[in-house]
Amino acid sequence: MLDFAVVRLQLAPSQRTAAVKAGMSADKGRPPPDSRPGQTDATAGSTRKSQQIRALHSPHGSADKHGHSALHEELVRGLQQTMHRQPAQGPITQFVHHNTLHAYMDRPFWQAVRDVHQGLEVNTLPSEADARAAWQEGRIDALDVALALGLPGPPAPDGQLTAAALRWIAVQWGLPAVAQERVDWWMRSGKAAPQLLKGLPEAAIAHAPDAQRLARDLKATAHALLQLPSQPEWDGPALAVAHVGEEDRVWQVILAAWLDEGMAALTMDGKARSLHVVGARLLHEADLWRLLKVPRSVLAHWEHDRPGGLKALEQVLQHVASTDPLQTAQAALLARPGWSGQVVLAAGRRTGGDPEHARLDAAAGVAALRLALCGSELDPAEHRAPHAATVTAWRLLRAALAWGTPTSQVAALPMETLLALRQGLVDLDGGDLLCALQQARELHHARVSLGALAANCLRPMEDRQPQLPWAQVLACIDDREEGLRRHLEELDGELETFGIAGFFNAPIAWRGLDDATPSPRCPVVMQPAFAVDEVPVLSHTSAVVRRRRLRGWYARLRLGLHQRGRGSLYGVASLVLAGVFDGLRWMAAAVVPDLATDWRESALAALMPPPLTTLQILNLAGKPASAAEGAAVVASVLRTVGLTERMAPLVLLLGHRAESANNPHRSAYGCGACGGSPGGPNARLVARWANDPEVRQVLTGQGIHIPDGTWFAAAEHETTGDVIVHYDTAELPAPILPLWQRLQRTLEEACGRSAVERCRKFELAPLDPLPAAAVAHVHRRTVDPLEPRPELNHATNALCVVGPRSLTRGLFLDRRSFLASYDPDLDPDGSVLAQVLGAVIPVAGGINLEYFFSRNDPAAFGAGTKLPHNPVAGLAVQDGTAGDLRTGLPIQMTELHEPLRLLVVIATPADRLAQVLRQSPGLNQWVAGGWIRTATMDASTGQWQAAADPLDIPRHDRTMAPDTVADSLAWVHGHREFRDPALVRSAAAKVA
Amino acid sequence: MSPLGIPVAPGSFSSSLGVLLLVAVLLPGLAGGSVLLAMLLGRPMREATAVRVVAIGSGALAATAIVLTTSRLLQGTPVVVAWQSGAGPRFGLELDALAALALPWAAGWSAAVVSMARRYLHREPGMSRFLGLVGIFTTATAIVLLADGPATLGVGWEVMGLCSVGLIGFFHQRPEPLAAAIRMAGLNHIADIGLLIAIAVSSHGRATWASLGSSGSDSHGTALSLGIILAFSIKSAQWPWSSWPAQAMEGPTPSSALFYGALSIHAGIWLLLRSSAGLQAQGWPLAVIIVLGTLTALLGGRVAVQRADAKGAVAWATVTQVGWLAVLVGCGLYWVPAVAMLAHSGLRAWEILKAPGTLHDRLSDREALARAGMGRGVQRAALERFAAVVSAAAAGPDQRAIEWLARTSSYWVQASRRRWTRSVPPVATGHWHAVKEEDDL
Hints:
By secondary structure, chain A is α/β, with parallel strands linked by helices. Chain A has a five-stranded mixed beta sheet, with helices on both faces. Chain A has a five-stranded mixed beta sheet with strand order 18-16-22-23-24, sandwiched between helices. Chain A has a four-stranded mixed beta sheet with strand order 10-9-11-12, covered by helices on one side. In chain A, helix 1 packs across helix 16. Chain A starts with 50 loop residues before the first strand and ends with a helix. The radius of gyration of chain B is 22 Å and the shape is globular. In chain B, a hairpin with a 5-residue loop joins strand 1 and strand 2. At the A-B interface, helix 10, strand 4, helix 11, helix 22 and helix 23 of A face helix 3, helix 6, helix 12, helix 13 and helix 14 of B. Strand 4 of chain A pairs antiparallel with strand 3 of chain B, so a sheet runs across the interface.
């Protein structure tokens, strides 16, 4: 999902230097961009320059010479490239996290972040200021930087200025390219010396020459630089600049009407027709011809003859003045990428024919309509000049001061050295600096995390695995469940937990009691294989009929008041009572948000008590699912987590969901493995199958024996309010009941501790509250309609461990780690590993990179702030009523995130991982391209090795030993900031 | 005899409670002003402090309003404070029956918005700006509600408009909010011209509401009515100015709710209610108001059901309803539109606050309807017939009438647009049908 644009199309892949050593620029010959990542205002929205098009020099020359067919082909090719880079995020009600730069996964991560930054002038990496703040907080240190630059350790200043020394100086102390006017002003006002020495070490400050000498040396250096061959000038990227005005608004209203999936009371007919045809008709009816930039006849032709999108685009391009028709068309598509992207996606969803063709046609149509209304929005490339000699001289002088080189000698350096230094500065500005800082930050995280994992491996196995667990809990791999699992095990050492993708390997289409439409509960890449309906048990059928009727009337009332009745006297007449009621409710919500909702909930529960239900399971053929089909799912669950023996008497399958009120991004908080929906139904289904005697019989035949005394229970963890809802409790067998009650109590206590731990990351929550107060606080967040941060979701995620729980049990991981259970001993051929990684890497990696890019540039990749969001057409949110549709994550979700690529630690032999990657090119792209950092680990010795880029993974002697603490809550007590991994003593003590 | 039923109290320039009222009215503004001042001096208050300061200010106003209202209900004497120097304009606040009803509502909502800002705007860099403007807006609204004559109302009216512009342009990093704020500023100034004319001809600003109808010549009366109609029609987004509320939804959601759902949008109706003595003395202005209100309601209702974005649809629904309120005022009613206005402000403010969740609400409504079997069948057909009859009653006998209105409006805005208003949505009238549940499922 890219919020904009075509990037550097003129660079053919062969010209690119692939897989450059991270942090080191390969494009030495290319002139520098004059801005660096981190330069643009992070809070700015999609303003001028946020949408951009790289100059595209068509090899075929201009379209006029070649006539229509050449233009046609060029348009098809160009639009396809542009579409590939449009936002690919579907309806916001089914939010799916994915790599924002998915269109660039054909190249390595470091190459992609540079290409996108330079081609689009957006921030793909954290800014320098951001990284320096992390340094201040101790999240980067000098050794990290040295390792990131490929040095054995921090170098000592030796007075020899080289490009490598410049890199070190820039990363360690900063070599900002200040504006020339500033340099001049500082020189004139005598402030040069303090400015040059700002932030440098004491020794450098002590040996600095006086201000007059500095001024002389600066002049001499600048003079020497002027003797060098001059640096070339260059053009920045061409931009698509959105026109803001009535035409733009009218275009948006037409798109909204065409896209609408049930927000407006009246829907437009003819939505099956192309957008430009419908648009022409609306413009005609509303008599808005005066807005057009093309002759009226063109749109009349669209309205009556309904030409295809490409044809319409060609017609418009003839009338819209431009030197480059293709770029003009691309600019029209990318001026409001959120809007046009949704049209393209909707066209693909709605068509009965070839979706690829429908999308292309829609892309052309939406661009044509935009051009007809707004004209060309192509802003030509801006001319750029390299830094003035004075600025370069200033930076070199600062470097010399830091490095102990006499400043008077800089001007006297040989010409080759000066050239190399100047080029070194250019490379730093071109991305080297930010890449190095980012690598240092990631290395620091890896040194801490790998050190902690290795230290944990060295603890005795008895401390990390109960011999005879009385209950086992299978939770989602989600980072939010790490906290709950840790607290469960800390509370009861005889409990064991496992992590598995939250759809429990059961791809289903679920229709709950109150749903009319089934919704898929599986990763988006999968198709549901079972249709599961929640149906009332026989004795409750009539209650359900009544319940549905009541809900229907309530919905009708709401729609009448808030949607359909708005235009008629019906709505007008009904508003007086409702208005008084709503006004009071508003005041109540402002002051006591939970009270108002809780009363409503309890009233509804009294009116419509939840009935007893059961499941009706159909397979793809529409027949009741057989025992063999159920057994296949159960077997795959048990094999994936390595639970084919040692089964406890009680096994709990724990799905999860996230509740929030008045939150358009609600589905982004749900279970990623269930397409953003709650995962409880999957747990419930699999548990029912696992308890089915017929299924168990089939399983025994396959070598998986479930003991007769073992019961599978199912529940759902509501992660925002830290509440657990249990399913099918009426069916619990009597012998299991005491165990189940014990588990329920432990879960409740663990939820309380989890809430306490979470409160430290909410500024508005009390620090270190009692569990009851913490639970009350997080409950308020689930029901408060005015709470933009119901929970922090995946923010701060950074680690993913694929391996047995014994690797991580007793380790405090601060809810920052995805934990997938996998037992390498039970998987000699790597088939289970392939299955686990196939689900874990795209899901966890996609979540991680979406947070990464949304945080690094909230304006271009993220959704900006939530405060002005306005839902449109049932598909997306818009800034106010005139802005672009925003994809990505809002600031409120990403502000606490620490931007790190996911560190995936896999407990498996290196060759087995290599074999899995060979068989799966998709996974290999993630690992080899460096979109995640990957290491394999031997769970018995704690030894690891890098699976791809060795620079990502530090050596063993570079790691840091973790602290040992009494329990998790003691470790976080009184802290709101990040807490490093620590070994928890209580977990071990209780097992022993 | 006052047609408003307000006891006229000439000469009684202040009561002891009146001073209390004045202090309470000024408190939110002072609190907001101090937050703004601290920000401008480069020492912005901490978030919690700023919220507390403004919450105390507006909370004190709300509490005082409740106390004074209760005492007024019990004792029946108006609370007055007024000031006049020689031949200059008269400024006065009076808590009469209508204001006694409206002030607790308005102050309560302002206090509610401030207290919700602590959560909703938490960590927002513009928090001080938001709180400062809302605080000042609260005082301005209270002045509009309590004003005993056009001159006093004009003071609050002007400040209200400035705060509104400031909050529309709250996210000034993007071009769209800036454009909308500038447009709003222009419109506000046209409205101000109308109000200034009304003030000037009403005994040079010395008139109270009750004396509006009795003083001055015919030409004065005409100018007064025209000025008031101009000010009202812009401030309450009547035809042909109806498109501004939808474009003003650029600020944070709570401020949009407070301004364009609850308070600001009804200021025009309030002006009509207050000056109904003057309008009724003339007669013809009421007819003009009825025509304007009807046009607005028919046009707005059409757009409201076609808008596919949550906030835009609420904005147009508000415009529609305010049109009907104007019609009620035009019919010479007083308490009916007054109470309906207060109720309406609660409904729309809540709708705007709930706008972000509209996606999921509509989804669950449609699911519930379909699950109940109400999406189709007999009941639905019956309901649709009923709705059709009602809409037809609203729209008049001929569907084409609406089409004509929509077009005219569009032409009118075309002409005016070059200077002030920038857009009208393409109101198309044919080819639209009610959403069918079956289509969406």
